[in-house]
Amino acid sequence: MLKTILKNNKIKLKFGKYILVALVFIIWLCFFDNKSVVDLIQTKGEIEQLELEKRGYLKKIAEDKQKIKELKTNKENLEKFAREQYLMKKQNEDIYIITNKPN
Predict the structure, then answer these.
(1) Distance between CA atoms of residues 37 and 30, nearest Å
(2) Is residue 21 part of a domain?
(3) DSSP conformational letter for 40
(4) What residues make up the domain containing 52?
(5) Using only C-alpha atoms, what is the Rg of the chain?
(6) What pLDDT does residue 66 have?
(7) How many beta carbons lie within 10 A of that of residue 37, not counting itself?
(8) Angle 71-73-74 (CA atoms, 0-180°, nearest 5)?
(9) What's the CA dihedral at 82, 100, 66, 49 to 10 degrees?
């Protein structure tokens, strides 16, 4: 009877050691390793942010390409763009700039 109790305790003790080592290993991998779970989550967040910026830049590029195409094909659009963006004017012409003040 005593031998079986001691044998069961040895098995439990060995099994407990394996669980302890496994837990220490998992904790090490999750928090202290070079490629830890915390670092992976932060990296994933940065990637998502950069993807959003990329979509915004691609949208802006498409808009600019459309504007360039319009400016190259239509002289009236080119003149309108020059007047609005660079405040260019014809001779004997006055420009008045009206801005709205925020309330």
Answers:
(1) 5
(2) yes
(3) H
(4) 9-86
(5) 35
(6) 92
(7) 12
(8) 70
(9) 130
Counted domains in the chain = 1
As a whole number of angstroms, the distance between CA 60 and CA 57 comes to 5
Cα–Cα distance for residue pair 9/68, rounded to 1 Å:
81
pLDDT tens, N- to C-terminus, the chain (103 residues): 556 655 666 666 666 778 888 888 888 877 777 777 778 888 999 999 999 999 999 999 999 999 889 888 888 888 888 887 877 777 887 777 788 887 6
Provide CB contacts within 8 A for 95, sequence distance 6+. Answer: 83, 87, 89
Q: Which residue carries 């360039």 as its tokens?
A: 68
Residue 14 domain flag: yes
* Residues ≥6 apart with Cβ < 8 Å to 87: 95, 97
92 φψ region: left (φ > 0), alpha (ψ -120 to 50), beta (else)? left
| Distance between CA atoms of residues 101 and 87, nearest Å | 20
Q: Are 65 and 73 in contact (CB under 8 A)?
A: no
